[in-house]
Amino acid sequence: MLNLMLLFPESFFEEYKSKYPYPKKGDILISASGSIGRTVEFAGNNEYFQDSNIVWLSHDERLSNSFLKCFYSVVKWAGIEGSTIKRLYNDNILNTVICMPSVPEQEHIGLFFENLDNLITLHQREPT
Q1: What digits encode the pLDDT tens for the residues 29-81?
Q2: I want to staple 4 with a disulfide (CB 3.0 to 4.6 A). Which of 14, 25, 48, 98 is the partner?
Q3: Can you state the angle between helices 103-125 and 65-74, rounded to 10 degrees?
Q4: Hey, which bits of the chain come out as E strands?
Q5: How far apart are alpha carbons 110 and 104 in whole angstroms?
């Protein structure tokens, strides 16, 4: 990610954000080309995203970002195209069914898997 403040004045960046879709802090960004499905949580920094290879799902309060991050790690995308470099298009994302438990349950699921990932990382760091 490129820190835009190094290249442009803040007023230009704010104008850009007002004209074009821009993620909110906590949104889950997903790679849509090549390494399809890699995710990162947007930290809310002033960053510029160059192309359509990084996408995110704009949603309302019925979907938790922590649950969405878990979902992205297991989803099998249908209709992925490309012979050399695979590509995930908006239709692939929009036509994917997400079975959603209640928001509190989503939060618990997301927290459970985040804690599990942290525990795995800690165990991988332990000397053998």
Answers
A1: 888 887 787 888 889 888 776 666 888 888 888 889 999 888 988 888 887 87
A2: 48
A3: 60
A4: 2-3, 28-31, 39-41, 47-48, 54-56
A5: 10
- φ, ψ of residue 47 to 5 degrees: the values are -130, 150
Listed in sequence order, the residues at least 6 apart from 110 whose beta carbon sits closer than 8 Å to its beta carbon are: 64, 65, 66, 67, 69, 70
Neighbouring C-alpha atoms within 13 Å toward the C-beta of 10: 2
Question: Is residue 20 within 8 Å of residue 45, measured between CB atoms?
Answer: no
87 DSSP assignment? B
- Tally of CB atoms within 10 A around 118: 10
Please tell me the pTM assigned to this model: 0.72
